[in-house]
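3.2 Worked example (two chains)
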Amino acid sequence: MLKIKLDENNIVILTIDCETKPMNVIDKEFVELFHQKIEEITSDEKNQGLILTSARDEFVAGGDLEMLRSINTAEDCVKVTSLLHKALRKIETWGKPAVAALTGTTLGGGYELALGCHHRICINKPKAKIGLPEVTLGLLPGGGGTQRLPRMIGLQSSILYLTTGKQLNPEKALKAGLINDLVDSEDELIQKSVDFIKSNPEIKQPWDEKKFKLPGGEVQSPKGYQIIPASTAMMNEKTHGNYLAPKNILCAVYEGCQVPIDQALEIELRYFTELVLNPSTKNMIRTLFYGINECNKGQARPKDAPKKAINKVGILGAGMMGSGIAFSTAMAGIPCVMKDISEETLERGKAYSSNVLDKMIERGRCTPEKKEKVLSLISTTTEPKEMEGCDLVIEAVIEDRALKARVTKESEDVMPSDGIFASNTSTLPITGLAKESQRPKQFIGLHFFSPVDKMPLVEIIMGEETGDEALAMCVDYVRAIKKTPIVVNDGRGFYTSRVFTTYVSEGINLVTEGVNPALIENAGKMCGMPVGPLAVADEVSIDLIYHIVKQTVEDVGLDAVDKKTLELSTKFVEELGRLGRKAGKGFYEYPESGKKHISPELEKLYPISKEQPSLEEVKDRLLYIQSIETLRCLEENILTTSRDADVGSIMGWGFPAWAGGSIGFVELTGVKNFKERCLELEKLYGKRFSPPSILDKKESFYS
């Protein structure tokens, strides 16, 4: 794990190589061994310096999250973290130079190791990342990052990186002051490290100098008085108090930067320990790291299904969805043909990819040459016969069963016999659509989210007859286009559309009860949803909601829909023409000049009651209804894993990440407490809040 070599200059090269792990990470064993080796190195007077480097393409990817998840007491957290602090302080106060020779990606605890050295040099690999991303998993850098980074680059810049988790490539990291130098090869990396040590035989960290001052201004200075309150206000506006990590980071920086470094590290440790023991943090790690990684690795793929190359993809429909799917496919280097009924629509469809690529070029994320290559992979046609040779055809036409049936037949007539046909429907059951297929085993659902180029999730839907080969190809395809797959079984609305609809419907119920629309919208945002339910309804369009509800009534009856949603959407569409943003009016008004605002007409239609519910009551209704419907999806085997439920809820429609997802919210609340609150809400607001019976069978949804 740690290999020591002494060169001819008596410089110690300490090389990290966690041979039993896919990447170098910091776990308990590493910390104990690292502390031991640093004690040995610094106590030997003949040693003239230290080069800390890696045998891997990356330096260190961060802390071992499994170790952090297993910590259940403050004593255990303090014990292992304090040992790392001692080792790094020993390096800093040794009196001899230490250089972090970074071989590539250096994140989290890995970057904190680098901060504990006197100088940081990195190989210039464009894809390498440097930074402290702990906040994205509900943590803070616990190895001194909240104290050393501000002392190195100042309060303002460090708070940005600490509270956003922003990662930089080596060139940008150099400009930002996160590292000191760049090299082009490993040989140059070691040579420059040796040169620095020979040129600086005696050295101290700046913050160990008696006259040290924080770059850019102290906490208690005019500049500090601006930075800390402004950062706190921005954090509160963004998080609404739902996330503990940004708050603890600011507290650690504010308090720690006013005292000597050793005392500052104790302050950081206190705030770090609180986060490690926080159930919300454990939920976030479980879903945002383990859950997403498991999905991305294709754990849902049938193990015995052979891997089949996807040489060409057909896309039926050149609207927003079809255009986005074509772009994502071509970006993955897969040729695709986009079919529609008119050349004009096809031109617009291909122009979509061109426009996205132009924006990427402006931001330095693409080159004109790459743009031409991507566009060359997208061909267009009005002829069904061009689906010939497509290993996978994705239907992205409007939600019309007759049209979907026609394009299915046209494609299957010319596709290879082992080709897979996928429907991008968001609500229509796959099993019903597959009845029009000549080969239902090869018929599957691929539900993309709009805009496709930005949304990271794809919901794969298994029809009753869908075979393993179809699932395997779709998992492989979704991974190839760098999106996250979840797999669900068939049912109206599947999982994501079905559950997300409850958020909108509950907002509509609140409006019809006379709850102030501003309270509804603010409650939605304050509980952690991206936007309020009424704004969402306007964005997806109220006429779409209307058509879905009407179609559901026709197919399965009135009891299958929310009555208030049916009544309001019918009134808005049939009587008032309030279709949402696209019509310039819905729950909001959209003036040509000026910001959107809640429509005054809304209060005339649904007068605001004198007595209003509490903010917490509204937040509960908006969150509980989503988790209840998620539980019903588990109960009905639409969902087969809690992991897919949580990953899908966060990545699909923005369920609050602080809860770890819609099942995570149940876990965080406690199954017993969740059920009791459901019963209270049911008594007040109706059967939709009735606790699903699955709650009686589980103490936890994660073993």
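3.2.1 Second chain
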Amino acid sequence: MAREIEPVRSPVAAAPSPWRAVYDRLQAADPAELDVGQLEQLAEAAFWLGRPQESISARQRAYTRFRDSGDSAGATRSAWLLFNSHFDLDETAAAGGWLKRARKHAEEAPERVEPGYVCFAEACWALYQGDTDAALTHNARALEVAQRTRDHDLEALCLAVDGRVRIARHEPAEGLQRLDEAMVAVLNDELTPFITGWVYCLVLDTCHELGDVRRAGQWTDLAVRWCEQRGHDSWYPGLCRLHQCELRSLHGEWTVAETQAVRAATELAPFGDYLIAYGQYLAGEIRRRKGDYRGAEEAFRRTYEHGGDPQPGLALLRLAEGKAGEATVALRVALASSAGSPLRHARLLAAHVQAELARGGVEAAEASAEALDRLADTMSTLLLRAMADLATGAVALERGAAEAALPPLRSACAVFHRLSCPYEAAEARVLVGIAVRGLGDHATADLELDTARVTFARLGAAPDVARVSALQAAEPRGGTGLTAREVEVLRLVAKGRSNRQIATELVISEHTVARHLANIFGKLGVASRSAAASYAYEHFLV
């Protein structure tokens, strides 16, 4: 009788006791006295306790036992897990060696599920090397094994990687469908904890790289809750925090995001320098926007020291320091060698537009804006589209085409507002204000610039507050323009506040509120609170 095919199990299921208890008991024993199952348990316990090198050491001993006893399936499983362990630590030479071992042992056990995991590893390796055709081929073979053997862990991994590969091939709709399908298995609690965490990581990484802010936000919230309950001291909680703090940075929660980024980078130190670099880069970007240039410089330096790329943040720091030429050179070099995610490439292009416009290189800025527009069309995410529209509008404005600049700039502002990206929305408002002022609409210009300045002040973006204030001081305010206080009153009116509630919230008298409302009605040419509220919503003040 043919032996029944058994699904490979994540070693998580082999540890019946809490991870600390398992680790303490097995680590205290003589390794020579542990059987192969106990070595696998020790490897898994070390992983969940944040000790990756100890996990690798125990896994290597387990592999040797399997190999020497002629257990090809066990040797395949151990070699595959060792490939994954080294790959996660960015130790690619060791990972490649273990993949070859896994491939050799898989040939000795073709009827089992383990060769499917090796095919999955081959897909990950091909994607890492940029060969998406080979990645799809290997992944399809792995998925066939997963479905034949009814191995839910392997099937979910294959779906997630298939999505990642298709997005890398600029097929975002198909890719996102695969990612969502993989997440169904997570939400339905069909997977072992080890694979659950892995799928979360694959999905979140891909959503962030694509710039799909809304999908990333939904899955990140779920992942954080899962990590709090099941992540223990592995690298999963730190990774989730990094994803979360990137979202918080986009949403303007800078203080919390910066603290979390530094904390996560520290927690992830045992798992690879590239993770430290990621956290330091996020912190550097927040500090740059806040005007902490010395702190940003230090964070970007640490990013580079740990093997990360500090661009475009470092170039934008140089631009803020008045070194536009240096910034454009750095960004051209970064773009020439850019093989990163769609969002990272979009950010490089957007930064290059800024830097070139600052030094008068309109032609070069326009070329990058057009490239960004093409990327946004291909990837079809709202964030990239808004970034492209902002760049297009900025170039048109620089060419003196204020009327042509307004549609993309207003569109960018609306999308950033919809995605809850206040800093980016305020950047768009500044350009809208400049454009409408050039067209003679001083009332709207004052409103846009005032609102942008209030937003920057609330975020703590001191350099941008100073920039907008300088813009306003350089041009006399229109006679019908709203003051900053009137903007605040208008926003509260749009939120349905009464005069008494507005007076309480702004610590002014009801008489003063009534006077502000009279001025607002006159300047906007409206006759009622509802009309003023409509104006506020049309201009994204609430």
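3.3 Remarks
DSSP finds 28 helices and no strands in the chain.
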